[in-house]
């Protein structure tokens, strides 16, 4: 569904205003027409349109004064100036003052629609770029480390879902941080001061699972010598996180469904029900729909829990996050063990980036602890990495990847070293050319994958996309 944009037309000629409205009647925009400058200023006090079509000559004030007011207020809207023949120079001057474009009267239907469409699309794309740029500033978030685009998407979903009571169904491979995600949702929610209770449905025997969730009364079964509160009672007012939910027994899934629907449950062996206020979160490393198809997970429970889906990205898809997380673990464990480690050699960087990490963050954590415990030094080398990381890439592959972002330097003398007396002017090239060459080599090496190239070059993908787009525009 297309987004509807608000467009304000400030035009004192009623016939022209009606004509503009007729031209734009089929566009996905919400149109408002005003005849005077004061009416426009009053309107802008409470409503901020996406775009303003501004006539330069109004009965009570000039269009220039309105543009000046918009700039002073810092309104995030675009202004297109409409001018009569002979006032083009004035319109160009207003563009220097902040107007985005101008139209010369008489304005044709096609010109008006094309100009407005293009400006709204530029605004949309600029907003996307700004979002991407700002996203890289959020390097940590509620226990997470990483500024990659997949993680920024996770952060945004948590921000949006946390304030509600909606159930969040977290999926992802083992070791991707599903419980960290659940804790982040809890801490971002209004329930942050209430209990967060996590229960791993795959780590508890099936015959004890019901008691773990709902609790039991004294004498409910052999060994029940005392009454016991279950996770449901402990989480009252807070959040109950059911990890590996697809491991739960089918009969217990039926009771869980009723509990989620009513907020009421019965302890094992009890004769009366209890009522609690709980926010439910759940997670699995399996495909829940496949589990439903296989008959191992109730379909009605799946649809009751699957309100806000959230997929945790595998570590191999997180680019520079790998090194950020590895460096964090390295410094933490070095401090714990009294070691001097603080960084990785460039060759070790390459190996860490390109290893597929089937065990995700948990595996990376264990690898770094292994390195710190068994070795000494300041920088972690490839030889210090445990198998299979120390034989993942060949020497040639490591050399190629480590140097791909470094433009080749040539010297005119036979010793391959710069000579102060040698005329190097012919060898010096503009920095922008070297940058472009390095970026193009990286993209070619990654078979056109800009995101991977950005990871190798250690720059944000949005920067790379912008540069690539600028070059393609120049060549067009």
Automatic annotation (TrEMBL):
Top-level taxon in the UniProt lineage? Bacteria
On whether Cell cycle is a keyword of this UniProt record, the answer is no
Domain Sigma-54 factor interaction: residue ranges? 144-373
**Annotated Response regulatory domain residues:** 6-120
CDD domains hit by this protein:
AAA, REC_NtrC1-like
Which keywords does the record carry?
ATP-binding, DNA-binding, Nucleotide-binding, Phosphoprotein, Transcription, Transcription regulation
Xref: InterPro entries: AAA+_ATPase, AAA_lid_NorR, CheY-like_superfamily, Homeodomain-like_sf, HTH_Fis, P-loop_NTPase, Sig_transdc_resp-reg_receiver, Sigma_54_int
The answer to whether the entry has keyword Secreted is: no
Q: Which residues carry this modification: 4-aspartylphosphate?
A: 55
Q: What is this protein called?
A: Sigma-54 dependent transcriptional regulator
Record organism: Enterovibrio gelatinilyticus
